[in-house]
Amino acid sequence: MKKFLLNCLPYVLFILIGASSAEFLLRRTPNPYRFKYEWMERNCGSVETLVLGSSHTFYGIKPSLLDGVAFNLANVSQDYSYDRYLLEYWKDRYSRLRTVIVPVSYFSWVDDDIVSGNESYRQRYYRLYMDCDLYPGSFLSGLEVSNVASAKEKFRQVLLGDKDAGCDEDGWGTMFAPAVSPADELDDSLAVRSVVSHSTFSDWYMVDKNFREMKAIAEFCKEHEIQLILVTTPCWHLYCDFLDKRQLKNMHELIDSIVSGYGALYLNYMNDPRFQPSDFHDNNHLSETGAIKFTQLLNNEITLRR
Amino acid sequence: MLFNSIEFLVFLPTVFLLYWLVLKERRWQNLLIVAASYLFYGWWDWRFLILIVFTSFCSFLSGLFLERSASAPKVRRAISISNILINLAILVLFKYYNFFSESLSDLLSLLFDYTPGWVTLNVVLPVGISFYTFQALSYSIDVYRNRINATHDAVGFFAYISFFPQLVAGPIERASNLLPQFQTDRSFDYAEAVDGMRRILWGFFKKLVIADNCALVVNEYWNQYQELPGSMLIILAVLFTFQIYCDFSGYSDIAIGCARLFGIRLMQNFDYPYFSRSIPEFWRKWHISLTSWLRDYLYFPLGGSRCSKLKTIRNVFIVWMVSGLWHGANWTFVCWGLFHAALLSIYIAFGINTKYEHEVGHGRVLPSLKDLLRMCVSFILVAAGWVVFRCETIHQAVGLFRSMFTNSFIDAAPLHGKKMLVVCLLLLVVEWLQRDKEHVLQFPDRKPFNIRLVRRTVYYLLIILIILFIGTGQKFVYFQF
User: Are B194 and A7 in contact (CB < 8 Å)?
Assistant: First the structure.
């Protein structure tokens, strides 16, 4: 037994030292979660407009094009429970906040990706970098190295000396270029249908939870006299064509109840014909040029409605 | 808990050290196995534990009742049938109810334009239910047939059903092999433990480097078959053939290796199946524990091959339909089973169902041309079967085969997965060289492999390759069964 353990020791040390070094390096890699948390810690008192939500707003709204001091606190797959947590986290330190923008996408009410789906590995980033332990997990599942695919990608970033956090100084996601060959990609009905099907749910068990979180955001805004703006970002027309009518109807009914119950403003750009193929990164995400165009339109609309 | 998770990297050494250094008495070691296995299984969902405890309890009790009613054949028969029915009812409820109710509903709708109002159940399929149910069934059937004695050791029996290395994806062990191992004292064997570690390493390499990287290509392009050239579809079929092999045999290697660390020997589940000269030989080398289970508990009771050729073929079809259904509640699995039944029937009908005494190319460096051709034909047939197995619907399978031959064979777009094909070929070469060994890392006792430095270099290289080329942490394919 002793001989066996001694023989195993070099391999165990090899793996342990490797994993610890990797963890140390990965935690020092710039990332949007840490950047946004640190920015808010420094500037939450001066922020006037906060953008929350998922990749649709993370890559879709460029805060520097909005009036006043604006910051994009959205992250990929961020659901309403994280939106609520982050909004309330600095609640005693906001002094100028007057607008909160929250996306309502086709999947928003039924989304459970970050809770228990493919994106649940992102929970660790909130835990590690944003002081947010909404869905507690084991110590091991909280390590950067425990998600090998993303750890490898980040490790590549370390080796290349890439210091880009993945967002600009206002928190806007900067990794979405226009679709490589927009016409082919956006009109690939098979691929678009597959994307839609991943966001279409027959089981509506998440609706209650997500609606509750949204109501809490709306209540917070009402209580602090902050204008809540719900926004549906542009999607390619083919994506819109494949959406399930029942889910879409349900989405709008829930939006209506927030709008009428809490005085929120809803702006729907889902099937907006002003957006061209080059404005899209893929069928439901805007490219950088699309995001600039969209933010300008959104800013004009908000100014007009004020 | 997945073998390819960081939690398992902590779980396994902890249980191992407790097992050998703290709890040295057999009874306590078995108790630790049960507790660790339930922790391992409950990691997915603690509610799954209710089912496995219930299944274990029923089979344990049925064994005791069978023993007590030794002189009453009718009572014994009733006990045995009751236990089989209870186990199958659980399996059907959780795995097949929705499939059968939907299929019947579709049939009624098609034939009589009537859509029944019954509902499907919203139940989660418990991981590995088919594996441990079959294992529990084998015990009670063997007790009924007086092949083994009923056990009075509840802890040992629960350890037999729930033993974590093979709990969720086999090998499906027999009570006659595994149960006695839990009832005898075990002592630490250095050579066994080292061999276990080697096997675990090789299993992880196959799973994480080969299967997961094949899966990346296969998953990305499989559903786009209508637009892909025929050559790319053939590459996808070959890659899936290697993916499922490395995924499942990789799991079996890790399971067998882990068991050896605890002084337990599990049966071989794979024996280099892609070096088979015929389909019957393939089935003697692939998922051996399931094939032999079906042979002993279904094929032989039906009459096996000790009847007319026609009846033998009928038995083969029944067995393979069950095998298809065992793999999943979908018509694609049934078709896959029937496809293999049809192939086996051809071998039976023409009397070419040869049982080879030795592995292919025994004592030679290269196979004979005849054997090579036979292996190629078997491989192509098996790969065609895997295409049906991988598809979500029969319609998709038909479409994919049609596209393979009607789409242009090559087009301007680059072919994907070529690098993985080369890796798969290298795997075949390594396996060919080691095909007379239990696993690839059983080094021959000659230079340079008898030099410790050489062996260690190979281990470190494999670890580095795993870290560098690890895929995306796909779940094991066979978990769904």
Answer: yes
State chain B's mean pLDDT as an integer: 88
Contact B460 A14 (CB under 8 A): yes
Q: In this structure, are B21 and B145 located in the same domain?
A: yes
B1 found inside a domain: no
Whether residue A195 lies within 8 A of chain B, CB to CB, comes out as: no
Choose the most confident range, by mean pLDDT, from A152-156, B46-50, B109-113: B46-50
Residues B85 and B182 in one domain: yes
Domains of chain A, start order: 30-117+165-305 (3.40.50.1110)
pLDDT of residue B238: 95
Q: How confident is the model at residue A190 (pLDDT cuts 50, 70, 90)?
A: low
**B100 and B218 share one domain:** no
What is the chain B residue with the closest CA to A148? B472
- The last residue of one of the domains, among B154, B187, B220, is B187
Q: Name the band, by pLDDT with cuts 50, 70 and 90, for residue B266.
A: very high
B287 is catalytic: no
Are B18 and B92 found together in one domain? yes
- pLDDT at residue A42, rounded to an integer: 95
Residues B50 and B179 occupy one common structural domain = yes
B139-159: per-residue pLDDT in tens? 999 999 999 999 999 999 999
Residue B310 falls within a domain, yes or no?
no
B60 and B139 both lie in a single domain = yes
Q: Domain tally for chain B?
A: 2
Contact assignment for B473 to A149 by CB distance below 8 Å: yes
Give me the pLDDT at residue B355, please.
Answer: 79
Which of B3, B5, B9 to mutate against chain A (most A CBs within 10 Å)?
B9
Which residue in the set B6, B20, B193 is minimally distant from A140, CB to CB? B6
Among A4, A14, A146, the residue with its CB nearest the CB of B194 is A4
B470 to A148: CB separation less than 8 angstroms, yes or no: yes
Residues B14 and B153 grouped into a single domain: yes
* HEC string for chain B: CCCCCHHHHHHHHHHHHHHHHHCCCHHHHHHHHHHHHHHHHHCCCCCHHHHHHHHHHHHHHHHHHHHHCCCCHHHHHHHHHHHHHHHHHHHHHHHHHHHHHHHHHHHHHHHHCCCCCCCCCCCCCCCCHHHHHHHHHHHHHHHHCCCCCCCCCHHHHHHHHHCHHHCCCCCCCCHHHHHHHHCCCCCCCHHHHHHHHHHHHHHHHHHHHHHHHHHHHHHHHHHHCCCCCHHHHHHHHHHHHHHHHHHHHHHHHHHHHHHHHCCCCCCCCCCCHHHCCCHHHHHHHCCHHHHHHHHHHHHHHHCCCCCCHHHHHHHHHHHHHHHHHHHCCCHHHHHHHHHHHHHHHHHHHCCCCCCCCCCCCCCCCCCCHHHHHHHHHHHHHHHHHHHHHHCCCHHHHHHHHHHHHHCCCCCCCCCCCHHHHHHHHHHHHHHHHCCCCCCCCCCCCCCCCCCHHHHHHHHHHHHHHHHHHCCCCCCCHHHHC
Q: Do A1 and B227 touch (CB under 8 A)?
A: no
What is residue B413's predicted lDDT score, i.e. its pLDDT? Answer: 63
Residues of A in contact with B467 (CB under 8 A): 18
**Considering CB atoms only, which of B6, B224, B472 is closest to A143?**
B6
Domain end call among B157, B187, B217: B187
Write out chain A residues lying below 8 Å of B459, CB-based. Answer: 11
Residues B14 and B152 in one domain: yes
Chain B residues near residue A140 by CB distance under 8 angstroms: 6-7, 10
Asked if B7 and A8 come within 8 Å (Cβ–Cβ), the reply is no
Q: Is residue B441 part of a domain?
A: yes
Contact between chains at B20 and A143 (C-beta distance less than 8 A): no
Average pLDDT over residues A15-33: 87
Model confidence at B479, in pLDDT bands (50, 70, 90)?
Answer: low
ipTM above 0.90, yes or no: no
**Which residues from B are below 8 Å from A138, CB to CB?**
7
- Does the residue B438 lie in any domain? yes
Query: Which B positions 121-160 lie with beta carbon below 8 A of chain A?
Result: 122
pLDDT score of B440 more than 60: yes
Mutate to test the interface with B, among A140, A156, A194, A196 (most CBs of B within 10 A): A140
Domain hosting residue B471, numbered range? 191-277+356-480
pTM: 0.76
pLDDT of residue B244: 95
